[in-house]
Each structure stands twice: as C-alpha cells, then as structure tokens.
Structure prediction request, 440 residues.
Amino acid sequence: MKTVLSAILLVCTGVANAQKINEFSAQQAVDYASQHSVQVKNALLDILIQEQTNRDVTSVALPQVSGSASATHYLDIPTTLLPGEIIGQPPGTFVPVKFGTKWNAGGALSLNQIIFDGQVFIALKARKGVIDLAKKQEEITEENIKANVFKIYYQLVASKTQISLLNANIARLQKLQHDIGVMFDNGFAEKIDIDKLTVQLANLETEKLKANNAISNGYSGLKLLMGMPIKDSLVLTDSLSDDQIREGVLAGSQGNYKDRKDYQALEISSKLNELNIRRYKLSQIPTISFNANYSKQAQRNKFDFFDNGQWFTTSFIGLQLHIPIFSGFSTRAKIANAKLALNKIQNQQEALKISIDNDIQNAQNNFATAIATMDFQKKNMTLAEKVYEQTKKKYEIGTGSATDINTAQTDLKAAQTNYVQALYDAIIAKIDFLKATGKL
Prediction:
C-alpha cells in the first residue's frame, strides 16, 4: 500500500512539474509572444544573418593575405630541346637536355589591398541600411503578432462574460422552473409550462457546452500564437469594460505616414535602391589595388630541405589599375534596372499612403460605429432584464402568460448575446484603429 501511495505521489509531482501556470495580462501575453513566437525568433535571426553578411562585405575592403607551400618530386625530370648548333650539329637539329633537380619546394605569402573601388565603398555605406531594413521587418512581424494576440486575448475575455451571462440565465430559469413547479403543485400552472422551461434549460446547457469548447480551442490557439507549450496553463487576468475600450484612442486619432512601420520599411528600401544606382554608376570608373608577394624556393636532389642548403628569395610590390572600357552595355542595363526598381518603390510608397488614409478612415468609422453599437446593446440588455423581471412578476400573480415570459427570456438572451458580440467588436475596432495609425 505504501509503495502504491508513493508511486501516485511521484506521478502527481511529475504532472505538476510538467504543467506551468501562467497568469498573464494582455500586455504580458504580448511580451511573452515577442520572446517565444517562432515568427519573431526567425525575424531576429534574419537580423543576425544580415550582420554576418555585413561582416563579409566589410572583409572585401580589408587586406587579403594568403599563404602557400608546395613540394614536388619529379619521377622524370622534364626534358628541354636545345638547338643542335650550340654543340656543332647541323641547323634544324635539337639536343634533348634535362634541367633541374628531383625535388623542388617553395613557400609564399601574398597580400592584396583595395585602394579605391566605388562599388565596395557603396556596399560599405549600405551596411547600416540593410540592418535597419531587417530590424524594421522584425518590428512589422512583432506588430502583427501583437495585434493578433490582443484580438484573441480579448475574445477569450469576452467569452468569459458570455459564460457568466449563460450561467445567470441558467440560474434564472432554474429558479423560474422551481417557482412554476410550486404553482403547478397548487394548481395554478400547467405541465406544459414546466416542459417549455426544461427545453430552454437544455438549450442553454448545450450552448454553454459549445461555448466552453470554443474557449478551450481559443486558449490553444492563443498559446500556439504566443509560442507557449500547449500543456502549460494560461490564466487571463485582464477584464474588458466600456471605459477600457474608449481609453487612449483619441491620442492616436491623427495618423502620420511615418508612424507606420511598413511605410518606414519602404523608405529604407528606397534609400537602398538609390545606393544601388550609385553602385552601378561607380562601376564605370577605374579601380586601384595594391599587391605584394614574398616567396622562397629551393631545389634538391634529395628531400633534405630542412638541412643546410640554399633557399632563393623572390619578392615584389605593385599597384594594379583596372580601367573598364566596354562591357557590352551591361552596366547601362543594370543602371536602368536599378532606376526602374526605385520607381517601383516610389509607386509603392504613394499607393501605401492612399492605403493608410483608407485604413485610418475605415478604422475611425468602424470604431465609432462599434462604440455606438456597444452602448446601444448595453442599454438594450438592461432593458430586457427589466422586461423579464416585470413579466415574471405578472406571471406569478396570474396576470401574465407563459408565452409572455418565454418571449421575455428569449429577448433577454438575444440582448445579452448581442452585447457580448458588440463588446468584442468594439475592442477589435480599437486594435485595428491603433494599428492603422501606427500607435499599437
């Protein structure tokens, strides 16, 4: 028995350790996603990849030093033909002669340094721009994750309100069913009235079951988006209120193109394309580089290079001037293509401006409509509750019918559903508005 209890304790401890409980506000959920989302992680890795690419570009402008070593053993020494006249033979004849030794060895160091190359200088100048573009793409990815996390988070918060209203409706109908049951026992109600309430209760329980299932799936979806293990527990600590939805929106009502990260990315791309045009133009002017070499060579009939013997030195330094003259109009085509690419970026900027204006206008309209709808549905829900209570009292004193109270209950439930949906629509409209204005 003791062994069994110990085993159960170990299993329970293992489960407790495997499941981590996270109590997150909406902002904490966003912060978690920024650190654990795969999309954000990969965007950050793209920045690191670009940094390494920049180091590779920088290396082109630094001295290039290389070394070499060789050892050759001639199984047959190469033969050279000398004119026969040098030893008194008739003209047109040749004498085969072997020059050299069985073993040859050598070692060398060479250095090359670019002094002037317009394309390299432009590449060095573009390094910061490409890093900025990679960072901006990461910010765009993070902003999209942030918006989606907020939307799912508050959808789940609104769903909790829906569950609370369903529980209240179930409790209300259960009490009504009890009260009508008492009236039935005393001959003041019909059995069909109780049956109708039983059907309504069954429908509410089914709706609650479906709502809880949707919420469970929503939590899994939120964890997946955040990069959280599905086995971990997630508790949402934020609430959702009318005042909270209205808060902070007026501060972002004035949109500015430069506040949008996608517009900032296009600006960086435009500058990089301008540098690309300059790069191709500078490829038409001469380049200058410095080079140097130092080498040692030795010849032996035996492999005794590390013994006493003479090594012969060769060294030189020099400048190399490369003058491009004609490349078959390739450079001209590259410049034209780069200019066309820049024109495309500029067209995208103008199109994005129009799109941003449209986004802001639509977001403003949607948010104003969502707020008005939310206020209206809240008042409508309060009124439906009053109608239900008054109808219930009239039924209890015998001046109302079961049809009236069933209708009032149906209207109340519809009003509550509409309010929960309006509440969620309003928070979504706020998130879309803040994103449209670049204030999210």
Q: What stands out?
A: The longest strand covers residues 103-116. Confidence is low (pLDDT under 50) at residues 1-17.
